[in-house]
Amino acid sequence: MEFSIKSGSPEKQRAGCVVVGVFEGRKLSTSAQAIDQAAKGFLTEVMKRGDHEGKAGTTLLLHCLTGLPSDRVLLVGLGKERELGESAYRKAIDTAVKALRTTGATDATFFLTELALRKRDTAFKVEQAVLGIMEGMYRFDRMKSKPPEQKRALRKVMLQVARRSDIAPGEAAVARAMAVAEGVGLARDLGNLPANHCTPAHLASEAQSLARQHGLACEVLDQKDLEKLGMGAFLAVARGSRQPPKLIVLEHRGAKKKDAPPVVLVGKGVTFDTGGISLKPAAEMDEMKYDMCGAASVLGTMKAIALMKLPLNVVGIVPATENMPGGNAVKPGDVVTTMSGKTVEILNTDAEGRLILCDALTYAERYKPAAVVDIATLTGAMVIALGHVATGLFANTDSLARELVHAGEASWDRAWHLPLWDDYQEGLKSNFADFPNIASRAGGAITAACFLERFAKAYPWAHLDIAGTAWKSGADKGATGRPVALLANFLTRRSA
Ligand code: BES
Ligand code: MN
Ligand code: ZN
User: Fewest CB atoms less than 10 Å from the CB: which of 21, 46, 333, 375?
Assistant: First the structure.
């Protein structure tokens, strides 16, 4: 997709489609008014007939308006004018793309980017438009035997800004957003790829080709290396699988000061989570192919920051394995020794994410990190707590939590800070090892964070539980690419 920034008037555009907004109550936006005037009140007439009310989520496609050089005009409902906030804006963009896909237009010019959004500048509106359009145009059909019929597809998008002085910031925003969109696209592709294709070895080879293409350093540790390091918890999870585990390390060395302490991202890479001996029920188990979305977001973010040539040192660490039952699998009650030396009683083999992450967190110490952020589809309890809107955020350092909340707001890929008080640590008691890997059901997402916190004492650390936000179920089943936008924003701020 090709994006450009323009500052022009809608009635003079010679485009495949002009996209303009209409508020609820048939109130034309400024650009819709300009078209209405050029077309001698045609839009007003159409709305009088009741064909478009401006309701959010609705569109109306009009062809060959007299007095207008464009082939089509797409009216997009914006909802109530007073309520036009970030979510309504994103919804309008998403709705417009969905409608455009059904047309034969190969280019479009969006006037939605001109709308006034409280407390948001041109850069935000342009970034969200680029990300929304790229998200809406995404398809995952590489597993189909025949590619679905290719109709003429949208190739060029002009985003209109209100003033000429907005063009330069708009163009910078397009460049940034395209880099983020590339990262989001990679994270979605890896997430959607089924587990018989997306194995730990596949993730490793994706990381290696990312490194080759973008000048990153990449190292892949195998089972033997993990044994030497004493990663007993990670290896315990991998025992039941025929697929050998991998510890993938990617490094972006962008900082002006070469040896500046890096930010380390750690992504849960369980390429399929059956639960192991503590087997999951059958319903929707296919969705456990998404249990590597934390890893996918790390690879996606590394791609985005490499494209942006971010002046910051960043290390991505991905422990990758399947969690399978079998004759060699780890059993409830087994005690393992982690790389840190602490022993863990594995009371439930389905609480495997924290077991692979704890060793990766210990491994991260060797980078003397400025901060460590782990990203994981860690708990079903997180989905119950925050649903599919906000990512759960935990941290041992409040300022780091604030940075991440802020980055989530700025990129509209939001996270919500939850408590990690000592009181919550009390459930993690074992009669046989230093501590178990589970506690009671209550506050399950917090318990998991408490477990990880015990391995993250050496640096400022935050944990993002993306169990509710990494993918969608139902008719739109698919990976979202979250939280690549949040992480890219966070790292961009850190590099300034
Ligand atoms: N990958 C799952 C968490 C998950 C479940 C994410 C459903 C999204 C949807 C994780 O490994 C897991 O199984 N967690 C258990 C922990 C429990 C055994 C303490 C859970 O949440 O049920
Ligand atoms: Mn599990
Ligand atoms: Zn899992």
Answer: 333
The reply to whether 281 and 422 lie within a common domain is yes
Q: What is the domain extent for residue 388?
A: 180-495
The CA-atom distances, in angstroms, between 188 and each of 179, 296, 299 are: 14, 8, 11
* Among 87, 186, 104, CA closest to 390: 87
- Which CATH number belongs to the domain containing residue 458 in this structure? 3.40.630.10
Q: What is the mean pLDDT of residues 157-173?
A: 97
Instruction: Quote the percentage of the chain above a pLDDT of 70.
Output: 100
Mode of pairing for the β-strands spanning 156-160 and 246-253: unpaired
CB of 322 within 8 A of CB of 195?
yes
Q: What was the pLDDT predicted at 149?
A: 77
Q: How far apart are CA 300 and CA 488, in angstroms?
A: 9
CA distance 271 to 197: 9
Same domain, 147 and 233: no
Residues in a beta bridge with 157: 3, 108
Q: Are strands 27-28 and 17-23 parallel, antiparallel or unpaired?
A: antiparallel
Residues framing ligand 1 (Cβ under 6 A): 273, 291, 348, 350-353, 377-381, 383, 438, 444, 467
Q: How far apart are CA 236 and CA 232, in angstroms?
A: 6
Which residue type, as a one-letter code, is found at position 69? P
Distance CA(100)–CA(285), nearest Å, equals 34
Closest atom of ligand 1 relative to the 437 alpha carbon: 19
Nearest CA to ligand 1 atom 16: 351
353 Cα nearest atom in ligand 1: 11
Mean pLDDT rounded to a whole number for the chain: 97
CATH code where residue 94 lies = 3.40.220.10
pLDDT at 151 over 90: no
Angle at CA of residue 446, ends 443 and 447, nearest 5°:
85
Q: Tell the residue nearest (CA) to atom 3 of ligand 1.
A: 379
Residue written as token pair 């990381």: 207
